[in-house]
Amino acid sequence: xxxxxxxxxxxxxxxxxxxxxxxxxxxxxxxxxxxxxxxxxxxxxxxxxxxxxxxxxxxxxxxxxxxxxxxxxxxxxxxxxxxxxxxxxxxxxxxxxxxxxxxxxxxxxxxxxxxxxxxxxxxxxxxxxxxxxxxxxxxxxxxxxxxxxxxxxxxxxxxxxxxxxxxxxxxxxxxxxxxxxxxxxxxxxxxxxxxxxxxxxxxxxxxxxxxxxxxxxxxxxxxxxxxxxxxxxxxxxxxxxxxxxxxxxxxxxxxxxxxxxxxxxxxxxxxxxxxxxxxxxxxxxxxxxxxxxxxxxxxxxxxxxxxxxxxxxxxxxxxxxxxxxxxxxxxxxxxxxxxxxx
Amino acid sequence: xxxxxxxxxxxxxxxxxxxxxxxxxxxxxxxxxxxxxxxxxxxxxxxxxxxxxxxxxxxxxxxxxxxxxxxxxxxxxxxxxxxxxxxxxxxxxxxxxxxxxxxxxxxxxxxxxxxxxxxxxxxxxxxxxxxxxxxxxxxxxxxxxxxxxxxxxxxxxxxxxxxxxxxxxxxxxxxxxxxxxxxxxxxxxxx
Lengths: 342, 191
Prior knowledge:
Order of helices and strands of chain B: HHHHHHHHH
Radius of gyration of chain B: 17 Å
Largest sheet of chain A: 6 strands, antiparallel
Structural class of chain B: mainly alpha
Mean pLDDT of chain A: 84
Number of helices of chain B: 9
Number of strands of chain B: 0
Oligomer: heterodimer
Helix content of chain A: 40-55%
Order of helices and strands of chain A: HHHHHEEEEHEEEHHEEHHHHHH
Helix content of chain B: over 70%
């Protein structure tokens, strides 16, 4: 491709996008005979254009959503969707964009979370996802984010109405303070374990527990966010590689793509607790692959190595959560909870 | 901040009036402004999963420019220039950081990019920079439109004003540029 050729591509592309489907077919067919090379280029570009938001979702959410989050990344501010009047955006993460909104039916403020386009699902997968998300929403536990309801916007985007909390995520706290007082770390872990226990007992696994999904409320309570949402990501339609996920909290069985149960969440809680205590992750590497390698074969140092005031019993608890063989971890969140309360 | 707003505002107006020296004089001022803001921001609330490029660039505008004394064209020029500076800052640090991870000795010097850029985003930023450089050889303006969007958060109106084309043209060209970028990042570039 050179600049002159690109000019021809541009002219043809601009013509074609203005045409209706049948007109376009004819033009493309003629082009295929007259200039096969140009035809190939145009076809690729039209295909990419049709799904451009999906293809560029990872880069858009990395560079655009955060930046424009205080304004209006999805162009929804001021609009009313179902019985929600939407105000400004509160932020964006790997899974979606969150807006502050008024629930005009219930007369309360809510956080509306819209899933990003590449996490939207087709028919049966969507139905499955909604069934499970509804079931999780029913749990209503003091350590799980309260989900009020689900809906779909006019352009087919899934959204959920969540309780609006006053606080910050554990990720923000760790980013600012590096680590957490030992007593606070135990208390946060205890509340996470209580939330996991409730969900696991009902048969649900989080699959993506990490500091960004742990909300620390200003009254000292802790709420786990995005329960069950990771499943939407794993099953989403998009085949483009999305490089936004973090591997650092994944259990060995998740990396091996084996079957997952609640003990994968216990592993993740082990990583989170380790990080709260020491300010560093137990398994480190320069890239995703090397982190994954460490998770599969590296032996973590006990937290007390980096923070001498961590008691031996807490060292043992953390290292037990980080056992690669999940049968050697705590069998249930309930048992972990008992130990943390003791 | 060292640079006084009136100076930046004045330079912007001279630039719009056709004085290309003014642009050259603006560059270091914008660099300093953005670096200062980034550094201060990192001392406070750290970045979450994304880069607040748009916010930094717009905050720099508010700090450096006397908004009452400039036209749309001046504002657009400032934001466009700032998007270029932002791109250089981010890409330099992302590459330094990637090199350091691969065993090279280079360390980021100005502000710690790994705080600003999540690990997963480093490569995205470097890939985007490469793609923009390739597009610039085909059509510099289309490359600029993407740069404005990703590193400065310019609206299409601002982008059109800064590149001196109509809104309709900017819109059309950005659409093509995005399709092209999608193919590049998918690893299926046009030959």
